[in-house]
Structures are given as structure tokens and as C-alpha cells.
Amino acid sequence: MKDMLERLPRKLTITMWDFSWYTMTMPGEPYHDLSARFQEAVDRGYNSIRICAMPYLLFTAEGKRDGPLKFGNLGQVGKRTRWYNCQGGATLNGHAHLLELFKQAKAYGCYIILSSWEYQQSPSFLATPELWDELANIPSKDRFMAIAASMNQLIRFVKAEGYGEQIAYAELHNEVEFGQLTKVGEEQGIQNSDTPGLVRAMKPYIEEAVEFLKCKHPDVLMTACYTVNEAYPKSDVASNLQVAHFHLYIKGVLQELMDTTGLDNEDVPFPNQAVKDLLREDAPPFEEWTLPQGQEWRMRGNPVGLKLIYLHDWADPDKWDLYLYDRYSDHKIAMLQKTDFRFEEIHEWAKDYKLPIVIGEGYVGYTPLNAGFEEGPVGKFIAEYAIRKGMKLGFWGMILCSNCAPHHPFWNDVQWQRKWNQYILESV
To answer: What is the pTM of this model?
Structure first.
């Protein structure tokens, strides 16, 4: 593992292009011109791009899938919601697009972190549901190896085309606690809200899939992606990872907003008065705001849900931000303490396994596309606190903020990104 780390940057500065790098490729969308986006990324100080590599959408266990990928959208749904505001309509040669990404990465001296969002959001943006149905029909115990088998073929393909050196590492899947990989625990009677139980139930299946990938590609670092949003014993994390890759969404004051509006509680009426107080004047009734007829499959198994997207689409950004600013002081200390505790916990666990640590997403949480709390003075303060803490603990790589990417407004704050990427790169 030491040899693999020596060929990679001493520190990873990460911008997350998730699945948007292939769902937003139409003229005028951010990823229509990958070269321009790489140029911007390097100018801001990034050396690593984290993506959903769409392994299952592009490869079977035997090799390449035939034909192009065709993309749609959610109709009126998601127009002002991060990641959901894609134009749709693209017909994409996915294999060529993947190679173009690696070609530009090599040209600009960047590295790619491979992941998969395929048991979460990414299939929602396909034009038709066949691949989503195929994923859903895989028995829960076999889903981990199905993704691993496709990821194996993807890595073989990238290597054969001469770009293997640009792979920083590969994650089996994004945020294993959220999405349809958890079904293996739910079938054992574990509640979806029981994060410790789900992490424990998935452990042997994640270990099997990661071991398969390590054997197939001993020259590539392999891992799985966990969050530390909720507490759970780190002894239940897969024991054979080569990178300690975690996400931290602190929430705090944002959790108060979510609790008040009933986004996470089916027993709270929606939309209640707290929701209505945040809405724009032209917001339609929730019951009239729906996916196009026959397109209901797009939200099947999607961990975000229509209530949250409705609120993000129709919240007045000023009202949203004012709510968080008004209540932030009650949560400030706890939010910083959560950062300290979670990062120190990761550090202690990873030390026993001698693993490099990466924080791949963070920090406050999921906010509407045009809201500014995360990008404003408080959000920046929290991000800076987390970055300083991570560097103090010697973390290998960090994201500045999940919203620092070409498909978010925060991308336009160039100087802040340059400053903090330089801070990471210069940290010992």
C-alpha cells in the first residue's frame, strides 16, 4: 500500500462532480466542456475529482454494455434543487465520456476518485427505467458484488486505455448507509433509522466485495464510503479497507429546520405551517407538484424524497437562510464539537489500521440550490474549522465543501477555494 500512496499526491484537494458530470452535459450545462472545468478546477487548487463512475451503467460483470446512455429529467421537479436541476435530453457515449474525463485529468495533472451512486440517485436521471429495474431486481445480498464486478471491468477498461495511473482510489459505493444497499439489513428486521445495525449487517458483504476488487487490482487502493453523520461503532466498518473514506454532514441548526418542517418524520403533517413560512409566494400546492405521469419510478428508492425536493424547489432562499441564521447561535458549539468528536474518532480508528483518511463530503448539510447559508460566513467558518481540524490530525485528503463544484454557485467563489486548497496542500 505504501507504494500506491507514493505515486499519488501527498495531499488530495477534492472537488465532487458526483453524477452531474454525466447528467449535465447538454449545451449550456456545466459539464458540456470537461476541459474547461478541469482548467477551472486546477486554477482553484484542486488535484482530485470525485465522481460516480457509473460502473453498473457502463459495464456488466463480463465487460462493456452496448449502446449509448440516454438521459431525462424529473419534469417540473428539482428545478431549484441541487443535483436534480439537470436539463435532460442527452444521448451520451458513456465509455467515451469516461475516457474524456481521464484524458483531461491526465492533461491537467489530476486524479480521479471512483465511486458509484447507482443504488441511490443516479439512475433517476436515465431516460427509461430498464437499468434501474435491473439494479432493483438484484437480490440484496448480491448487490455489493454486482457493483464490484462492474467496477472491476471499469478499472480494467481505464487501465487498457492507458489512464490507470490517474486513479486515486476506488470506492465500492457512495454512503453505504443511505440507499438500496441497506436492504440487506432491512430484510433482517433492522429499521432503516438504525444506522449502527445497518452498518453491522452490511459489513461482511462490503468486505467480500472490497476483497474481490483488491485481488483483481492490487495496484489500486480500494475502499467503501461511510458517513459519520450518526454515531456507530467503527469496529463495524469493513476491516479490509485501504482508505478511510468518510463524510461529515454536521446539520445542527439545519436539523432543527428539518425536524420543524417534518422532512424526516412521517407523523408530522406536510406541508405544515413551518413549511409554508419558508415558501415563495408562487409555490404550488404540494399535491399538485408531481413527477410527469408514468415517471414515478424516478424516485423509487431515492433517499432524498419528494418532500425535501419540494421544499428546496419552492423555499424562498432569503427565508431559508434567515431561519438558519436566527437559530444558529443555539447550535454553534455543538456543531463544532461534533466535528471534533467525529474526526478524532475516525483518526483513532484509522490509526489502528494505518489507513490514510479522506473526508469526501461535508459540512453543514443539504441546502437549496440558491440558498446561501453554506456559502456564506457561517458555512465558511464551519468548513474552515473542519479543514483545520482535519489537517491537524494529518488527514490525507479533504473536500472544501460539497457545494464547491461546477454545478453549484459556490464554484464562483474562486479566491476562497484557492486559499483553502493551498492551506491543505501546504499542511504537514
So the answer is: 0.97
